[in-house]
Prior knowledge:
With 405 residues, the protein is α/β, with parallel strands linked by helices. The chain has helices spanning 2-33, 86-97, 117-127, 143-154, 174-179, 203-224, 240-245, 261-267, 291-302, 310-335, 340-364, 373-381, 384-401; strands spanning 76-82, 104-111, 131-136, 159-164, 167-169, 189-191, 236-239, 273-275, 283-285. A seven-stranded mixed β-sheet has the order 3-2-1-4-7-6-8, with helices on both faces. Strands 5-9 form a two-stranded antiparallel ribbon.
Amino acid sequence: MIYALFSDLVFYVFIAASVVQYAFWLFVFSRLAFYKEENIDFSTYNLPSVANARKVVTPEPSPNLSVSSESHNRPISIVICARNESANLHEHLPKILNQNYPDFEVVVVNDASSDDTEIVLHNFQKTYPHLRVINVVDKTLAGKKGALAAGIEATKNNWLLLTDADCYPLSKNWISGMVSGIISKKIQIVFGYAPYINCDNSFLNKLIRFETLWTATQYLSFALIKQPYMGVGRNLLYEKKLYVQANGFASHADLASGDDDLFVNQVVTQKNFSLILHSETYMYSMPKTTWNGYFTQKTRHFSVGTRYLLKHKVLLGMVSMSHFFLNVTAFYLLYSNISTMFAATNVVVRICIITFLYTRISRRLREPFAFWWFPILDVIYICFYPIFAPTLILRTSLTNWSRYP
Length: 405
């Protein structure tokens, strides 16, 4: 009797989880899979930049440009926080300093570095007058937030474009492409995409890049249905006015992380954002190469999810819970020979759908994945939170406990 009731419950949970999964994949995530790349006329922006011209000339509006006629000449402040990043700055900073954009400054915050960061930045300043360096030793906020707040306070312009010291654009049109997202006066935030590179073809690398792709699938797709909930600080543009109005990072000052996603979650609305998914605006970076480094990174990320707005926690919870319970209940039904054909057919259909959509999304976002990896990593990923979440919670708790006597 109990076994029959339990089996019925599992069957109904399987159906409910399947419906939720199909709804999200077919009506939400498919938006990103079929989203067309923006048509941006970069020639409007390709003027003598501040890096190699004394006089900036304001261009005539291009009739082919489908963005605001004012967006091309907005002064931009790029803010980069660097802590012991001398090697990355030496390699990547010139790709940012030499962007094809008429009016921008680059503010690098030297966050109490103990390596050659200060020397590297000083040498760059000799060549690039639009590079400004802020040396920070004592911070009012923990982690990157303190350095970022100091950098934002020092900026001269109203529009802030954020990235990290270990990131680099493939194109000199990165700034221009991101600025093209300011399509009206209502826009205050522009989301960009920031993938990790395939550096060693290891399983850890595949897992990290898949997780990044899956995260992007969620936050970009939700943005496309006017339910934005986060941005990624490696490639994010917003108005300084918005930062001031929100009192900076004050609402989550107790957390070391959240300078990007929690801030966006606090200030974004259905009308004040846009997203740019042009391949010349992608900002690349090196992923973690060790499991310990990956755990440390996930510990920081895990601590901010509980601070999202309730509606976003509900939506994301429905995605993850339906994903988990569909697979768990499917395994039980197949193992117990209960509605075997129905369960197997449902699983196969879902695998076909997600593989097709993941393949389109990965190509759209220039992620080099063979299609057969998607069903494998999709199944592996459902084990992520049940296995790693307790570890992450424990590590977070121990870290917080160790701060007190």
